[in-house]
Amino acid sequence: MSNSKQTKALLVHPPVTGLSIPPWAPAQTAMHLAGSGVCFEQYDANLDFFLNHLLTSKRLAELVNVIKKRAKRGTFKKAEPYAASLAADLAANPDKWNRKIDNIGNSFKLLKTEDFFRPESFLAALKNIDDLLDLASCAFYPSRIQRRCFTNPAIKAWPAVNAFVEDREANPFLFLCHDGLATRLESPELDLVMLFISAPDQLMAALTMAHFSKKLRPDLHIALMGDRLTADVEQYGHTLLPETDPKPLRHLMGALRESAAVEDAAVPDYRGLPLKEYLAPALVLPLRIHADPDSDLIPPTLFSHLSKICQQTYNAQGFFCIDSHVKSNFIEKLAHGASGKEPSICMNLPCALEESLDREALAATYRAGVKLVQWSNPAGNLKSLTQILWDVSKAGIWNHVIMPAGAENSSDQELARFMATNPNIVHSLIRRQPSASFFAGPDKLSPASTVYTQVARLPGRPFWHSLDDAVYLLLYLNRYDTKTIVRWRVRDDGLSVYSLGSHISYHFVEPQQLPPGYLDEICRMVEAGGSVDITLVRYNIERAFLIGYALDQGVIVGNSTLKRPRKEYVDAVNQQAGLDLGNYLERGYTSVRPEYRGMGIGAKLLEGLTARVGDLKLFSVISADNVAARKMALRNQTQQVASFYSERLDKEVGVWIPAWMLKD
Question: Where do the domains of the chain lie, and which CATH numbers do they carry?
């Protein structure tokens, strides 16, 4: 296959994947080919597909007519709910959809401006894009096109793939081939087409484009590059290449042209990509710290040098690390090289959550521009892991944890509970169900919540759920602090945003004065806290001296109670600890929803209750292992005066009394 003429290559990044940053694999390949005598063109077909071929006013208007025809044929009678309801809404409200179509250009434009950082404007733009993607999907049903995701439940095996690549009704990538790819294949000098499959959601488009290219230009050499490719895809191309190992690329280029030599360069070449067209207000470049299997990680000194080059050449304001995880020695060196100056770039770090990590080094990476750590594969001692998460959070870095779905051992369950009950430490937590194959759809991600699930639902959802593109989360973290973002919630309308704790009201009443349903909810709140014996919760609350509760958005978010201790309880404490509590009220059943911790709600409730006791005295019982409650007690000038063993709780508990009452 070798020849003396100059080799010309087309490097293609197929749909469907994210629109916020340029692709790494073609730029990395372009870096290797630079100076080798190979002439190449980079083509971001993913960006072209969405911006210039699918989500244009003209194309969407055409697809609306297709949907109407398919509706008349009964296509949507047994369709998935999203498609059936959308087709019905299109028929009932055509003017609404025409307005959305007319506004698509403004939605794209907003994501590239400062309005991106206005949460409600950002949500409106994303919603319009997502709605129109669902609209377009109905024209190709059962295929569904989403941002960063493509599915077709009819494709379950390779024979179905062979039919799909030529299916004009279900394959949305064929018009991209005809309108976008074909003109690039016309050059008679073109020898090689390389299609990069960095994610499973790119597979169907890549195979469609490979099949189209072979039919249009049988003389071309088709190479498919990706790290998860199997022998089944060989029929669509001539060569399969790994993405992270350049050696097979060298062999291919040597076979195509004897004098072609693939270089070991340092900086991915993004010059051939439309950097101003990506849907983000600042340029963030993808980065692999472990460039290939045989190389060591990029030294932090070289990384700093590369950062400066990319900033100067491309005006990059951030880097997004796409490694599965970085090694601990890189973290330590990155922290060591961080200066005290404000970092000029922002970046993320994917890390395995292991107890061997250097906590101080991780926290220090904030000074190097790290705003987000994406944790996975937790393993190790619970105390060590939680301390790592705490130190990183304290430094101002967002902790995003990915837990595997499925069966858990007791250690995993304890860690999951800690993370769910401490959203101010673990800011976002999801469970990942890996796909069994290319045909099982994308990995399933779901927010993980294992606590306070039985209490009233807070309105809406956390704002970070809308930042489903991690690049968007990184950019928001570079603009706002973690505390601000973790408290934002999107209301059920999907468009308006409120901040947790912005409208809290406090109430102190006797049990019989509680509004209907509040007693049940307070009991559920106490039981959800998990630190008390629940058998007597309702009995004690119904007979309480006073109940304090905090409301936000019409939901009880915190509560505390002054209880009248039962006689048998007073006698038991007197017998074990020698302390007579006969004329005391017990302060307890304090429960604050995890999302509202750190706002001082518990302290304000205790302060309000204490101010209303008159001449009575107070005590509280705190188990020895309830570290959070003990810290709160110390902050509120409360002292432990005795301890005893609780048979019902099967552990040591302490009796705490406000210091000022001990002076009387």
Answer: 8-256 (no CATH), 282-499 (no CATH), 505-662 (3.40.630.30)
